[in-house]
Amino acid sequence: MKKRLIGALASIPVKKRLIGALASIPVVAALAASDSCALSCPYGNVNDPYPGLCPRYTDLNGDGLCDLSQITAAATAPTSTGGQTTQDPNTVSDAGNQTHYDGGNASATTTDPGSGQGFGDGYHILPISIILIGGYLFTHFLFSKGILNRQKHRRIWNLLVTAGYVGTGVTGILLILMINLGVRIVLSPSVIYLHVELAIVMVIGTLIHIHIHWKSVKKNFKVLFGFKSHEDGDKKEDVNKVKTSGREKPPVSLNKRLQ
Amino acid sequence: MAYDILIPSIPVIAGYLITYLLYKNGLIKKSLHISLWNFIIMVAFLITGGAGFLLLILLDMGITVPISTPLLYWHVEFGVTLLLVGIFHFHIYWKSSRYMFSRMKKRSERT
Fold first, then answer.
1. Quick one: which of A61, A146, A151, A163 has the fewest CB in 10 Å?
2. In this structure, is residue B14 part of a structural domain?
């Protein structure tokens, strides 16, 4: 059984195996991207006030601060008595070291969990990747069947990668300016959310772009580092085989190909 | 934490101008100029994308590691580089880019 499995795997060409492995990356990423184990601020923010510096802003206790940025908030269950919030005395509180806290101005309007999360509950790595890869396979199929023009096929994906790139760039610059200038606006989480979603489009689009222009990519490496592709190596080996098999000169077609 | 925009921008712009002038004066081949900047955009993309991807996973899993902050910093700095080199990429492939947009323009004019 094991031998059969190994034999079956060995029969798959290396190129296909590599493509299969690469195609599984978004799946693994999406599986890894789980909300289940979020306990503290991943950016290390302390007492992050509304609307929060990142799209994961959550305020279940309604104190106007992100629960994840409150070191004990996620671990303890605060009890409210007469408008005052008290924490479990057995847990270690880091409140003395927190500098941003402005308890008196805690907003009561931020009690909706996930209200600062932009347009959705999380980032859509898997759906976007599947849609884009599916779309690319579809247009590639149409192109290979002659239904879609090569130019159109390329233009569609070039436009998509451009849109992703411009969107990511603009939102990124906006975020840098907001952080550098210390500006906090209600739209900040939405900008971060858009930045991430467009970046996913850009990354998948770029990988498709590289696949479409694979020949040029190989040529670039050849020009810069003098690398030779596998195909060239195989052709040379073929010529050597022909030479050693008795012929003095390789066939004209092979010579032409090498040139 | 404040991010630097000029520190990654100046060397990239200067480098591009230098290689462009060298190519224009015939000191280096066009293919070398193009290959060099395609390689740079690829490196910038890999670092920015890789760091962004790691940050996304760390963010979603709620893991705080000591490298999170420097990783975000370098993600931003290389992102700025990627943005600039992307503009140069458009400049290098301006003819095909123009063609890509001109078709859209023609279509909108027709409608």
1. A146
2. yes
Take residue A90 and report the two structure tokens written for it: 């057995």
- Report d(CA A237, CA A241) in Å as an integer: 6
Sorted by sequence, the CB contacts under 8 Å of residue A217 that are 6+ apart come out as A210, B38
| Residues A215 and A251 both lie in one domain | no
The residue of B7, B60, B80 whose CB has the most chain A CBs within 10 angstroms, and thus the best one to mutate to test that interface, is B60
Q: Is B1 within a domain?
A: no
Same structural domain for residues A148 and A248? Answer: no
d(CA A62, CA A78): 11
A158 and A90 belong to one structural domain: no
Task: Domain count for chain A, please give it.
Answer: 3
Domain that includes residue A241, residue range: 228-258
Interface of B with A in 55-74 (CB under 8 A): 55-64, 68-69, 72
Q: Which two tokens stand for residue B15?
A: 């480098």
CB contact under 8 A, B72 and A179: no
User: Are A223 and A128 within one domain?
Assistant: yes
Task: For residues A73 and A158, state if they share a domain.
Answer: no
Interface contacts A/B by beta carbons within 8 Å: 98
Ordered per-residue pLDDT tens for chain A, 259 residues: 556 656 655 666 655 655 555 555 544 444 444 443 345 665 566 777 666 666 566 777 777 777 777 765 444 444 343 334 333 333 333 333 333 333 333 333 333 333 344 444 578 888 999 999 999 999 999 999 888 888 888 888 999 999 999 999 999 999 998 888 887 777 778 888 899 999 999 999 999 999 999 998 998 888 888 866 555 545 544 445 544 444 444 444 444 544 4
Euclidean distance between CA atoms A237 and A235, whole angstroms: 5
Assigned domain for A6 exists? no
Distance CA A179, CA A191 (A): 12
Dist. CA A81–CA A153, nearest whole Å:
64
| Among candidate residues A87, A117, A147, the one where a domain is terminated | A117
Instruction: Report the residue from A38, A155, A176 with minimal CB separation from B3.
Output: A176
